[in-house]
Design brief:
The protein is α+β, with helices and mostly antiparallel strands. Helices cover about 20% and strands about 45% of the residues. It has helices at about 20-25, 85-90, 150-155, 190-205, and strands at about 5-10, 15-20, 30-40, 45-55, 65, 70, 100-110, 115-125, 140-145, 160-170, 175-180.
């Protein structure tokens, strides 16, 4: 995986070449990613879905993250990123069903990892139950959802914790229902401005 080739860009989003995934994160080079946030509305409440990263992941194991996301390889277009949804979540979605929130660029440094992403961000309004997800457990160990208004309040600093519910696949391969309180410390450390942009986009979609 570290030898995968990715397109790299300058600070003005101009493509300047190709580098391995390892080089991209070691040198802090701008590169493209695909982000898909699953959302839904049920009984008048808006929800946002989060993946639980597998404990076997090299980076940020066990933390809550974007519903489905991944790097775009050097030979891929943004449309090709839809594969991440089926690979990680096991649900079939066409690119035409997605709503684009545009490109959000952000940079996060964690230890030796310098992650500078040009994130192509999309929403998928999913009328799905938790049973519809068939997870790639090497990447994703569970799915939870939270109320959008509480998610917003958490990242605005108005709430210290919020309630999440969903399921997790345990070591035996069985699913267990989970309900737990989570704080910002339970999330992959994307920039606060990134989360704010996502929240704004979802509220605009729901009107």
């Amino acid at each position: 995986m570290e030898t995968e080739l990715l397109k790299v860009f300058d600070g003005d989003r101009n493509e300047i070449g190709v580098a391995t995934r390892e080089e991209v994160h070691k040198l802090g080079l701008w590169h493209e990613t695909f982000h898909c946030w699953c959302i839904s509305k049920e009984k008048g409440k808006n929800y946002i879905y989060l993946q639980i990263r597998s404990e076997s992941k090299k980076d940020y194991p066990g933390l809550l993250d974007i519903t489905a996301a991944g790097h775009l390889l050097a030979n891929e277009t943004v449309r090709d990123g839809i594969r991440e949804v089926e690979e990680e979540l096991g649900i079939s979605v066409s690119f035409e069903e997605l709503l684009s929130l545009g490109i959000i660029d952000y940079s996060v440094t964690s230890g030796n990892l310098i992650d500078k992403e040009l994130a192509n961000v999309f929403l998928y309004d999913c009328s799905l139950s938790f049973d519809d997800f068939a997870l790639q457990v090497e990447e994703v160990s569970g799915i939870v959802r939270v109320e959008l208004k509480h998610f917003e309040a958490l990242w605005l600093g108005e709430l210290e914790e919020l309630h999440a519910e969903g399921f997790e696949v345990i070591s035996t391969g069985n699913r267990v229902s989970i309900k737990k309180k989570v704080t910002t410390n339970n999330f992959v450390p994307h920039e606060k401005s990134y989360y704010e942009a996502i929240i704004h986009g979802i509220f605009e979609y729901f009107g």
